[in-house]
Amino acid sequence: MEGFAGKVAVVTGAGSGIGQALAIELGRSGAKLAISDVDTEGLAVTEERLKAIGAPVKADRLDVTEREAFELYAGSVVEHYGKVNQIYNNAGIAFTGDVEVSSYKDIERVMDVDFWGVVNGTKAFLPHLIASGDGHVVNVSSIFGLFAVPGQAAYNSAKFAVRGFTEALRQEMALAKHPVKVTTVHPGGIKTAIARNATAAEGLDPQELAKVFDKKLANTTPQRAAKIILEAVRKNKARVLVGPDAKLLDIVVRITGSGYQRLFSTAMSRILPY
Ligand SMILES: NC(=O)c1ccc[n+]([C@@H]2O[C@H](COP(=O)([O-])OP(=O)(O)OC[C@H]3O[C@@H](n4cnc5c(N)ncnc54)[C@H](O)[C@@H]3O)[C@@H](O)[C@H]2O)c1
Fold this sequence. Notes:
Elements: E1 8-11, H1 17-28, E2 32-37, H2 40-53, E3 57-61, H3 67-81, E4 86-89, E5 95-96, H4 104-132, E6 135-140, H5 153-175, E7 180-187, E8 199-200, H6 206-217, H7 222-234, E9 239-242, H8 244-256, H9 260-271
Parallel strand pairs: 1-2, 1-4, 2-3, 4-6, 5-8, 6-7, 7-9
Helix pairs in contact: 1-2, 1-7, 3-4, 4-5
The chain binds nicotinamide-adenine-dinucleotide.
């Protein structure tokens, strides 16, 4: 894909799923990669695949919730490559549980990774992206950042927050005339390990939930998702909807306004195993 040759791209959560596919597609397109994850085994697989392509790669264990480590990491990437052009704040986790039965700890954990991880990555890299003269922040939200469903209050909160944070940032960069583009990504169901890695509130079986997700909800491959995301980055889109489900559901929400809540709660009660 054009537009990525020689760019230094940072991808968090690059050991699996969308992050791994993004890193590989960026590598194929001529970018130099800085990849990270808490899953060092998955990360090593991505690193090997990038090396096989011949793409320059720096791989590090990084927990996106650790703010100081993220700041140090940003400095180390700039030191390694001399600049950084793009950050893909992709690392994320899923959790299912109604508000009534979810612990504060569970809700905070989702916010820490899915929202604060994005804030940490954006703020740690922003000065370097501005200094590059050609920067891009790509923050991964979800279709659950566009509408809410029962059982996903924690995840919805984090993904709505990512959307607000990123849409404000895009406008700020433009007003300040900073050379940094900003894109929010809203994937629909993507065939990754997210549901298999997910946790759930007491009384729910995460494995059963994962089966439903894998069978009924995940219909776009991570490779296809990566291509769609990178095409949107290349075109400097403010928002990218990934997959036919994301496009359709976005239209339903626009047409029905808050009425979508009645429709979606009925639909979810038919899909979910509880
Ligand atoms: N798969 C989907 O259907 C879907 C839909 C919408 C949004 N998303 C979002 O896409 C992003 C990527 O998810 P995926 O589907 O590829 O899932 P995945 O589970 O396959 O990959 C997520 C990666 O993030 C890593 N990670 C988790 N916590 C971390 C932390 N604290 N620090 C660093 N790395 C961490 C995991 O180890 C894993 O390698 C997430 O933000 C997710 O919320 C996914």
